[in-house]
Write a structure and sequence with these properties.
Largest sheet: 9 strands, antiparallel
Radius of gyration: 23 Å
Number of helices: 10
Structural class: alpha+beta
Number of domains: 1
Shape: globular
Strand content: 25-35%
Helix content: 25-40%
Number of strands: 21
Distance between the termini: 20 Å
Bound molecules: zinc ion
Length: about 325
């Protein structure tokens, strides 16, 4: 295989204060693949244990009343406080008003952005997305070395070596994806909230050394994705980043890989196969709208399907030659 150096198209980034043409919010569900629905059972990594501070409240309160603080008192104080490892990553869900398992928005955003970076392949010597880290590969990574599975899945895209990654602190011009998802020195126009578990449960798939909390097949997480100053075709790109495609003229959400252990699996379990499903889309009343998507509207069911297929078609119309969707789950 020969590696080809390509240019990255960069333009001045858009005004971060703008809202037009589209500002809004999508409610999105991440579903862990199950045999019943997707033909295979998969688990999803949600955490390897977080630190929790435990102490006896009464003992601490009593110690706080000491008049003179010296080494002896301080030692008594510190002996009361223990830092334990908890098995699962949880957070307070403002909707269900209880602690539930979560996937942090930064993990989801990283997953969607990197899939888009790899899916948007160069065309006629020019890329519309940079890739971080941009490392120059001279050959396939040998089987078993770091990153070889990633390379195997995405080798069509990784045969191109993009110029340096965007950095808005150095130059005010960035690629399309950095304009949408942010770059050093540039805020994002698309934000991902925390995804809270709404259905399912977790199991510990780890061992004595490392505990691994994984959501069971069929588990569901719900979160929101907000956007501003994006065009309809860019909304379509966001959907493509979440695994949406057009199949027989209809939109379809294909299983994709998310989270740790997604390539190798864990203890002979498949890991990280999920689908992203948009549940509804709301536009703000402050934006102008873009074609069929109007301001101040809530799209659900049939109307939502119409928006999704039109956004995807707009993305393929505008960026078609660059879009090369890969079935990650089949290639892994
Ligand atoms: Zn970039």
């Amino acid at each position: 295989m020969s590696f080809q150096l390509v240019k990255v198209r960069r333009e001045h980034y858009r005004d971060r204060r703008g809202l037009d043409p589209l500002e809004g919010l999508m409610e999105v569900e991440i579903e862990v693949c199950s045999k019943e629905k997707h033909g295979v059972d998969s688990y999803l990594f949600v955490g390897s244990g977080e630190e929790e501070i435990n102490y006896q409240r009464e003992a601490i309160e009593k110690l706080s009343q000491e008049r003179y603080w010296n080494d002896t008192v301080l030692k008594k104080y510190s002996d009361q406080i223990k830092i334990d490892k908890k098995a699962f990553q949880t957070s307070y869900d403002p909707y269900s008003k209880q602690k539930v398992n979560v996937i942090f928005g930064s993990s989801v955003k990283g997953n969607v952005k990197s899939r888009l970076q790899l899916t948007l392949q160069p065309y006629k010597g020019t890329a519309i997305a940079c890739i971080y880290p941009s490392r120059i590969l001279k050959s396939h990574p040998p089987i078993g070395t770091s990153g070889w599975r990633h390379f195997k899945i995405w080798e069509d895209s990784l045969q191109y070596v993009r110029e340096n990654v965007c950095n808005a602190t150095a130059r005010p011009v960035v690629c399309l994806l950095c304009d949408l998802f942010g770059a050093p020195g540039l805020s994002s126009l698309i934000e991902f909230g925390t995804f809270y578990m709404t259905e399912g449960s977790t199991v510990d798939l780890g061992h004595e050394v490392e505990r691994v909390a994984a959501a069971k097949p069929g588990s569901r997480f719900r979160g929101s994705v907000s956007f501003k100053a994006v065009k309809l075709e860019e909304l379509g790109l966001l959907l493509i980043g979440m695994g949406y495609s057009i199949v027989d003229g209809r939109h379809k959400s294909m299983p994709v890989l998310l989270g740790s252990h997604k390539y190798r699996g864990l203890n002979r379990n498949l890991m990280g196969r999920v689908t992203y499903n948009v549940l509804n889309l709301k536009t703000s009343s402050r934006c102008k709208g873009d074609g069929i998507v109007t301001c101040g509207t809530v799209y659900e069911k049939g109307e939502l399907e119409n928006v999704l297929i039109n956004a995807l078609k707009a993305a393929f119309d505008k960026f078609g030659p660059y879009i090369k969707q890969i079935d990650e789950c089949r290639k892994v």
